[in-house]
Amino acid sequence: MNELQVDNLHVAIGDQQIVRGLGLTVPRGEVHAIMGPNGSGKSTLAKVMAGHPDYQVTKGKITMDGEDVLGMEADQRARKGLFLAFQYPSEIPGVTIANFLRAALQARLPEGEELEATEYYAKLYEKMELLGMDRSFTSRAVNEGFSGGEKKRTEILQLAMLEPKYAVLDETDSGLDIDALKVVARGVNTMRGPGLGVLLITHYQRLLNYIVPDHVHVMVAGRIVRSGGKELALELEERGYDWARESAGEMAVTR
Question: Structural domain tally of the chain?
Fold first, then answer.
């Protein structure tokens, strides 16, 4: 099955349990949004999916197209088609964007096969134009001295170039003004299609005005407490996370 599936996931860091029995399925071709307050475990989920070593999975599993993700090294997950856009992208001094992306694409090719330079740069410039990025960006070190908006555009450029099967976008709207948000959203929307499943992690409904999700999930205290259509995000914006907590408690009582 072409889907990214999280089944009864429990995650701890040290003695602290952060994710508590989370279940989620993101099929390719759909955009799912996870909303939740600070400390709910949203970014922990993203990091565990990507293979961050500081987090311990104590129970449950994550599969991608039926394959066990947790049994893979981080680079293997990426080669298999899982992409993570970080909330706080790291700087990589001395490595230009052009060389970074070229190395990432080269790593996916069979041994002995070389990336064709002309085709690579044609594709790179096409994607940069889509995101409103000047070509001079290709000679800048990855994220070094970048504004918040420039860092997020660079992340989306990586997404566009690598063409993964599943993209987890962790707080992509963090630190963006409205113009930068629109540019990033346009890039994501251009890539929507049957070959890509997207998991958007966000605090705020505003991002979902521009990247309209197929499904919205509310995460509180390490688990999904409500799921619904795009209208759920509007209801959450109006009523707040206390409403989500209370309604989750009511649901538990009636079960």
Answer: 1
